[in-house]
UniProtKB/TrEMBL annotation:
Domain SCP span(s) in chain numbering: 65-178
A Pfam family it matches: CAP
CDD domains: CAP_bacterial
Keywords on record: Signal
Domain of life: Bacteria
Species name: Richelia sinica FACHB-800
Name under which the protein is recorded: Allergen V5/Tpx-1 family protein
């Protein structure tokens, strides 16, 4: 069986949607301009898929911990996990998993505006995967290997939120939102 991952996606197929970032607009959460990296990345690998049920909250925690470990190794300050940001990230992952929205950054500005925090800049990484035994690890590896996603995870942000959702097909959708509130 095919494993797939996609980024901003991953049977084990890993697909990444290009990262979104907002330009700095000090102290205003509703007037930030969004720029989109126009590239899409897809990594496809042949492998045997497993019938694994995922505990999405443990995957969210794993993504958060792996990103902070990466940042620490590279001399960057650790991010603080924020429940409001995670809530918006989780809704987006659930909407993608349920087919309500396509695998994309569609609605990014609305997600960020729905977070009750003032911010200077924001970014988002999304991933989709299927067939990996550790979808969180595959997403993080994909983001690190993608210049646009790497820029987001190494960015000058202090808060983050992670949301993961899986559907009955075994597809796992991951969203990480980054905010700079300083």
């Amino acid at each position: 069986m095919l494993r797939q991952t996609a980024f901003g996606i991953a049977l084990s197929t890993l697909v990444l949607a290009s990262g979104f970032m907002t330009a700095s607009t000090p102290g205003n959460s509703s007037t930030n301009k969004t720029s989109k990296n126009q590239q899409s990345f897809g990594i496809f690998t042949q492998a045997v898929a497993s019938n694994v049920t995922f505990e999405t909250t443990s995957l969210e925690k794993s993504v958060f911990e792996q990103i902070n470990q990466y940042r620490a190794v590279h001399g960057l300050p650790k991010l603080t996990l924020n429940a409001n940001i995670s809530h918006q990230a989780r809704i987006h992952s659930q909407n993608m998993a349920n087919g309500k929205v396509p695998f994309s950054h569609n609605g990014f500005e609305m997600r960020v505006k729905a977070i009750p925090l003032k911010y200077n800049s924001a970014a988002e990484n999304v991933a989709f995967n299927l067939g990996y035994s550790n979808p969180a690890q595959q997403a993080v590896i994909g983001w690190i290997n993608s210049p646009g996603h790497l820029k987001n995870l190494k960015g000058r942000y202090n808060l983050t939120g992670v949301g993961v959702a899986a559907n009955s097909k075994g597809e796992v959708y991951l969203t990480q939102i980054f905010l700079n509130t300083r």
